[in-house]
Design brief:
Largest sheet: 5 strands, antiparallel
Structural class: mainly beta
Number of strands: 19
Radius of gyration: 24 Å
Shape: elongated
Oligomer: single chain
Number of helices: 1
Strand order of the largest sheet: 2-3-1-6-7
Distance between the termini: 60 Å
Length: 289
Amino acid sequence: MFRFLCAFATYTVVAVGSAAELTNGFYVLKEDGTGTPVGRVGGGTLHVGELLSDKFGRAELRSVNNQNSHFQLFCSQAGPVSDFDPRRLAVVVEGFAEQVIGNTPREADRRMDFVAPIPDAGVAERLAKTLKIELQKRTHPGHKIVTTFLPLKKAWKAGDSVTLEMTLTNVGDQPVIFQQGGQYRGGRDNQFRFITWSLHSFKALADVGSRFHAGGLSQLVTIEPGASFQSKIELKQWFEFKEPGDYEVTCLFEMPLYAKAEFRGKPPIWDEFAVGTCSIHIEETATKP
């Protein structure tokens, strides 16, 4: 499965060099400055060399965000292609170039699968027309989820590790399928996000952890209509509750949603956050006589 993190922004798309004369297809990426300069869809320039193939195989253009501003081109059984370095592969579409960000090894028939970003809706629309394929935009899947976050105790001692339990209840009429995991290698499960405020000082508590993570295993979880999913999480990886008093916690859980309970290399159909709030009471630690 291909999974990627992208920083989205707005760009003015301008072709450069003789890119307009290039055939749509995938090319050798030249990192030494030789070859034909081609403007990137997301800004900047790539240099491309030999045309490896103009055969896209079975192509799909899928949106990768809810705003339908960025897309990915997925091609299976593209080619046949000649020998190439998989680390130096670019796709040229509609006069612009992007580096291929994932591909399978070349098969015996010299065909392969690959994926490349198309971070511009206009370019994606033109490419879809050229390839005579559907531009797969995201639409809200119609799910209905009730989210609660509750502390496991009514009160905690200062310095305790506060634990919350999240409950996601499907109150709709269709299954909700979401990805669990994939963000926990780095000290904490960053699929969760928290903001905590003291109701006495009215100041936010500092986050003692880090948003960095190195991925991790993941699975697809299905919540059937009327059913619930629960998970416990310790806040000590985010905050230190040193002072007694009352605190309000805003809780978020990232939920990439899928149409079916199978990855098959496809991106989510919707990026969702389950959001809730809860209150925590911290008592003074008893002093020893």
